[in-house]
Design goal:
The protein is 42% helix and 16% strand. By secondary structure, the chain is α/β, with parallel strands linked by helices. The chain has 3 domains: 148 residues, D-Maltodextrin-Binding Protein, domain 2 (3-Layer(aba) Sandwich); 178 residues, Periplasmic binding protein-like II (D-Maltodextrin-Binding Protein, domain 2, 3-Layer(aba) Sandwich), CATH 3.40.190.10; 35 residues, no CATH class. The strands form 3 sheets. Strands 4, 5, 6, 7, 8, 9, 10, 11 and 14 form a 9-stranded mixed beta sheet that branches. It has a 3-stranded parallel beta sheet with strand order 2-1-3. Strand 1, helix 2 and strand 2 form a beta-alpha-beta unit. Helix 7 crosses helix 10 and helix 10 runs parallel beside helix 18. The longest helix has 20 residues.
Length: 433
């Protein structure tokens, strides 16, 4: 979405807030990540909602770029957002903090697209949240999901090197490595690598490692990352994929959605990028719709989540954002079949009929890969220690190349915003702490 559209959207939201504040039951306040929705669906939802319920509704749509920004507005500011889209660990934190309301799923004559289409894999993963006895699936509905892995340039990096997280401290790739500026994403991959032998021997499980926020675990990861630091060209939230496309970087610890975007962009420039899930294990991530405790229009919020779970709308949002939906609907599976790829076992995600599906393995990993994955958790009161460790790893001084890269990227992004505004790409960047 270009800046002009963003300004108009913000102005429209302000006008609605001031002009319709007395009619709150006919307003739906949605808070979502930037560039994470086909915006034409907003007006269509308003029309659909009135058709289904006989009641009018107007959507006030606002966006955020960092999970913690959204959480602070609700937790400390008691903002009355009706439906928001946090990431996995924030959903867990909000559940433990009693900040969510259950999602109503009785829509009368309207089909329940939520329960009818949600992937069993996503449902099982949400069931692993620590929720003090609550069923997370009653409070959250998966929206998008993906993996964390290694994006690499096939011309300079071998498949074998990219098959392990140890590549991040390989000196032959000095100044060609980009790392996500995300403490928990980096910690989670590295702790799996450091305990690879313990995992194989059965001494510890990957799930157990995701719950280890001890000083000893932090120290282990900090030691590893301080070996990595001298080789890093940049700690990045969004510009790393562009650097990979332009071959300024050869290796990037990245999310699958950004990886697909970079691979497609690079192919147009004659650059071959690949994406690997390291053999020691990796994490999956999720974003999901929830209804915060201060919501004032829970009925419309539940209908919004149901509408966004309808297969045709799922497909439109995937095509717009470039990320993969949590929907396990047959229509969604069929929409992304691509004969270019080898068959994959996706029975874990779509059910028994999906034992040989040709689609992009970066978007939908094979069962054999997904069985080598785990999911992150909220660190709770230990979060400051995680952030402090990450600050020590990065240090205060960026290297000269980092400053040069950032300057080049800023100029390139301005030009790219004009040149690429009509192209489909993965625009949303998940910002996590």
């Amino acid at each position: 979405m270009n800046n002009i559209k963003k300004v108009f959207l913000a102005l429209a939201a302000v006008m609605l807030l001031f002009g319709c504040s007395a009619d709150r039951e006919h307003l739906l306040k949605v808070y979502n990540w930037s560039d994470y929705l086909d915006l034409t669906l907003i007006e269509e939802f308003e029309q659909w909602y009135e058709e289904q319920t006989g009641e009018p509704v107007k959507v006030i749509y606002q966006t955020f770029d960092v999970n913690e920004t959204m959480l602070s507005k609700i937790e400390k500011g008691h903002e009355d957002f009706d439906v928001v889209c946090p990431s996995d660990y924030i959903i867990e934190r909000m559940l433990q903090g009693d900040m969510l309301l259950p999602i109503a799923k009785d829509f009368g004559d309207t089909p329940n697209y939520i329960d009818d289409n949600l992937s069993p894999y996503i449902r099982d993963c949400f069931g692993k949240f620590r929720t003090d006895g609550k069923d997370a699936n009653e409070y959250a509905v998966g929206y998008m999901w993906g993996t964390t892995g290694i994006l690499y340039n096939a011309k300079y990096v071998s498949d074998e090197d990219a098959s392990t997280w140890d590549i991040l401290r390989n000196p032959k790739y000095a100044d060609k490595i980009f790392i996500k500026d995300s403490a928990r994403d980096v910690f989670s991959q590295i702790i799996l690598f450091l305990h690879r032998d313990d995992i194989v021997s059965g001494k510890v499980t990957m799930d157990e490692l995701m719950l280890d926020s001890s000083d000893a675990a932090l120290s282990e990861v900090e030691g590893f990352m301080k070996q990595v630091k001298p080789l890093v060209a940049g700690w990045e939230a969004d510009f790393g994929k562009d650097q990979m496309v332009q071959e300024r970087g050869w290796i990037s610890l990245n999310w699958s959605g950004d990886g697909v975007w970079a691979m497609e962009e690079a192919a147009e420039a004659g650059v071959e990028l690949r994406y690997a899930l390291p053999k020691e294990g990796f994490t999956v991530w999720f974003d999901g719709w929830v209804i915060p405790k201060y919501a004032q229009n829970t009925k419309a919020a539940s209908y919004w989540i149901n509408f966004m779970s309808r297969p045709d709308n799922v497909i439109r949002n995937v095509e717009e954002t470039g990320y993969v939906s949590a929907s396990g609907a047959a229509e969604v599976m069929e929409a992304f079949i691509d004969e270019e790829y080898e068959p994959l076992d996706l029975t874990y995600f779509f059910g028994p009929q999906a034992d040989s599906i040709r689609t992009n393995p970066v978007l939908y990993p094979d069962r054999s890969d997904i069985e080598n994955s785990t999911m992150e958790h909220d660190w709770g009161e230990r979060t400051p220690e995680l952030i402090a460790m990450w600050s020590r790893v990065k240090g205060e001084n960026a290297n000269t190349q980092t400053y040069i890269i950032i300057s080049v990227v800023l100029v390139a992004l301005i030009a790219a915003a004009v040149a690429r505004k009509s192209k489909k790409k993965s625009k949303h960047s998940r910002r996590r702490k």
